[in-house]
Amino acid sequence: MTSNTGLFNRRFADNFIPQPANTSLEIGQLTPDFQLPRVQGDPVRLSDYRGQQPVVLAFTRIFTEKLFCPLCYPHIQDLKARYAEIQALGAELLMITSTDPVQSELIQKDLQLPYPLLVDPDCTTFRLYGVGQALGAPLPGQFVLDQAGKLRYKHLFSFADPNADTDEVLRVLREGLETGWDGTRKVSPIPFL
User: Fold this and answer.
1) Number of domains forming the structure of the chain
2) Which of 5, 6, 59, 88 is the most exposed place for a label (fewest CB within 10 A)?
3) In a domain, 82, yes or no
4) How far is residue 15's CA from residue 11's CA, in Å, rounded to a whole number?
5) CB–CB of 55/180 below 8 Å?
6) What φ, ψ does residue 79 adopt, rounded to 5°?
7) Are 142 and 52 in contact (CB under 8 A)?
8) CATH number at residue 117
9) Cβ partners under 8 Å of residue 123, min gap 6
């Protein structure tokens, strides 16, 4: 284990004082770029997806490798069960955790997550996206980005609605791909008979 392992660590102290989500990101705005280490893989740079495919960013709240937020754990599992649907739409899901690299590797192994798990123990990216914090960990938040990296959907934590509904994320992806993200439906050519 690392010196940052366990519940009461530097991340806990840095994120203890509650701060509500305060993202200034607006729909249609180009989202901030970042690069984070990936568990069992090369580092991931968000801008590498620009011009390639839509991306779902899922900031999740995990306290330690064995202590999950009771509001986020079901969401993590739902995304795991529905990851193939996200991929079938041509999108990628990037889950971002604030656990340290050792904890994150254990989480990846124990939960057998099929999607990339990115590691941000300093919570820099959580702050960049303004998801907020409380009681020792950053809050969850979900963002859907189009192929150009523009924000098309955001969901920020509240006790009434802690995580985005996966059906809603899939609906946003489907509609965006059908309309080109601008609300104008793409018309398929009529096939010659």
Assistant:
1) 1
2) 88
3) yes
4) 6
5) no
6) -65, -35
7) no
8) 3.40.30.10
9) 11, 14, 15, 98, 133, 138
Q: Is the residue at 147 inside a domain?
A: yes
Q: Range of 136's domain?
A: 54-179
pLDDT digit string, tens, across residues 109-164: 999 999 999 999 999 999 999 998 887 688 999 999 999 999 999 999 888 888 99
Q: Report angle CA 100, 40, 13 to the nearest 5 degrees.
A: 10
CB atoms within 10 A of CB 30: 13
CA neighbor of 153 nearest in space, from 25, 19, 21: 25
Per the DSSP assignment, residues forming a β-bridge with 137 are 134
pLDDT band at 11 (very low <50, low <70, confident <90, very high): low
What predicted TM-score, i.e. pTM, was given to this entire model? 0.86
C-alpha distance from residue 73 to each of 112, 134, 163, 192 (Å):
13, 17, 10, 50
Kindly state whether residue 3 falls inside one of the protein's structural domains.
no
17: in domain:
no
Amino acid at the residue 182: D
